[in-house]
């Protein structure tokens, strides 16, 4: 199994998203998968300009000369695409949206077809079935903050005729690093690793495992109070500078 994983967080290795992505990748590798991890911020990927060059003039190839030319062969070969993104404002990061736009259009064709009574873009020659996995984190407490993102990724998968294999979602992200340093959330990282192993070996991730990744870190009011106290400390320290 070939896996292409994208960390789409501007914070890259320093973000909470990476804390979940890395053990997930470790679990996939332990199960025998060939995984390549790319940090999108380190790449030069321009916005899609809707020239339709990849549809009509040179099918499957974008006219822009940037790092997408390196990614296209990898995207075509991979059996699993893993997208990891924090939620800043009800959706994917700008980096991830640009990556998806530039990835999807050249890999499909300009014509429509009907699939299950719905208009979809046709699949270009060389298309193959693959799985899509979402990994995301956010600072908010509630799980429903991920709903718009999950709906978007399911729609993307359906339009491309890929399988949405599931999502590892981590709310209450502001407490992750302090609790990690205290050794109190090792079960979350073990669950993320197990999810990667399950996906490779079983083709799916169990609900129990995914629920452990998302488990509550603190009661709602305690979490909000602790977060606000931390923010106030930042303000106070900045005033002293």
Short description:
This protein has 241 residues and is α/β, with parallel strands linked by helices.
Structural commentary:
The protein has 241 residues and is of the alpha/beta class. The chain has helices at residues 16-30, 68-77, 94-107, 147-160, 176-181, 186-202, 207-213, 220-240, and strands at residues 2-7, 34-39, 80-86, 108-115, 118-123, 131-137, 163-170. Helix 1 (16-30) packs across helix 6 (186-202) and helix 6 packs antiparallel against helix 7 (207-213). The longest helix is centred in the C-terminal third of the chain and has 21 residues, at 220-240. The model has no long low-confidence stretch (mean pLDDT 92).
Q: In what order do the strands lie side by side in the largest sheet?
A: 2-1-3-6-7
| Total DSSP helices | 8
Mean pLDDT: 92
CATH superfamily: Flavodoxin domain
Element-level helix/strand string: EHEHEHEEEHEHHHH
Estimated share of beta-strand residues: 15-25%
Radius of gyration: 19 Å
Give the helix proportion (percent range): 40-55%
Quickly name the level 1 CATH class: Alpha Beta
Structural class of the secondary elements? alpha/beta
Low confidence ranges: none
What characterizes the major β-sheet?
A: 5 strands, parallel
CATH architecture: 3-Layer(aba) Sandwich
């Amino acid at each position: 199994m070939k896996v292409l994983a994208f960390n789409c967080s501007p914070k890259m290795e320093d973000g909470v998203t990476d804390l979940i992505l890395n053990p997930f990748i470790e679990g996939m590798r332990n199960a025998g998968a060939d995984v390549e991890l790319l940090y999108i911020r380190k790449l030069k990927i321009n916005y899609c300009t809707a020239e339709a060059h990849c549809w009509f003039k040179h099918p499957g190839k974008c006219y822009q000369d940037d790092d997408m030319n390196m990614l296209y062969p990898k995207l075509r070969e991979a059996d699993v695409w893993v997208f990891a993104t924090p939620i800043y404002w009800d959706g994917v990061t700008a980096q991830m949206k640009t990556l998806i736009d530039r990835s999807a259009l050249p890999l499909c064709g300009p014509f429509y077809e009907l699939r299950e009574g719905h208009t979809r873009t046709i699949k270009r020659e060389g298309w193959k079935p693959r799985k899509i996995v979402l990994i995301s984190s956010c600072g908010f407490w509630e799980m429903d903050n991920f709903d718009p993102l999950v709906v978007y990724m399911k729609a993307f998968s359906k339009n491309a005729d890929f399988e949405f294999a599931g999502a590892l979602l981590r709310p209450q992200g502001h407490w992750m690093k302090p609790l990690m340093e205290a050794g109190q959330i090792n079960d979350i990282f073990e669950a993320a690793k197990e999810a990667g192993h399950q996906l490779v070996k079983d083709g799916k991730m169990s609900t129990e495992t995914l629920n452990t990744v998302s488990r509550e870190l603190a009661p709602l009011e305690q979490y909000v109070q602790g977060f606000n106290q931390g923010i106030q400390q930042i303000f106070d320290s900045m005033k002293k500078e």
